[in-house]
Amino acid sequence: MFDYYQLTVPVYTRALKQLAHILDKAAEYAAAKKVSDETMLGLRLAPDMFSLVKQVQIVCDNAKFAVARLSGTQAPKHDDSENSFAELQARIAATLRFVESLPQAAFVDAEKRTITLPFMPDKPMSAEFYLLSFVQPNLYFHLSTAYAILRHNGVDVGKSDYIGEM
Buried b vs exposed e over 120-145: b needs ≥16 C-beta within 10 Å? Predict the structure, then answer.
């Protein structure tokens, strides 16, 4: 049996803090190079991929919706209207506050939940499948992509910025 709290709250807290850290480095880079937030947040790896701003929004959404669905609580609403590094940092901070607000007791019986996503109403998932095969890969895909966008465009970030202190 999984400890759904341990597999989400501390893991997502760490991931969100590292995302905030690499965005700090990106903001510093942008200021030094006189590149606008709009330009930086619009960066992408390929024309058909989401931009940096969308990658960050999706990381936050994966974290908040996962803990909400697994704990049976309501996730906060975000309007996806961030246009600056400061606004993205505020979104990350709000997501962190929500994720960290959930006590371990909220995840009791999480394994018994069936998760049905609004955009896939005909494909209900067990909590285990949802967490391990849907949320985790998605969260880390978008986190890695945000990192890769910044690294590809000259921001001085390395693996330790992504992983964090050990």
Answer: eeeeebebbebbeebbbeebeebbeb
Asked if 105 contacts 70 with a C-beta cutoff of 8 angstroms, the reply is no
Among 134, 149, 129, residue whose Cα is nearest residue 62: 134
Q: What's this model's pTM, rounded to 2 decimal places? A: 0.96
| Distances from the Cα of 8 to the Cα of 14, 15, 27, 81, 84, angstroms | 10, 10, 28, 26, 27
Q: What is the pLDDT of residues 55-66, one digit of tens each?
A: 999 999 999 999
**Complete domains list, the chain, with CATH:** 9-163 (1.20.120.450)
Give the number of other Cβ atoms within 10 Å of residue 54's Cβ.
Answer: 18
> What is the distance between the alpha carbons of residues 166 and 158, in angstroms, rounded to a whole number?
14
Tokens representing 8 are 């989400």
d(CA 71, CA 65): 10
The predicted-structure confidence for 99-138, as pLDDT tens digits, reads as follows: 999 999 999 999 999 999 999 999 999 999 999 999 999 9
Confidence tier at 166 by pLDDT (50, 70, 90): confident
Helix (H, G, I), strand (E, B) or coil at 126: strand
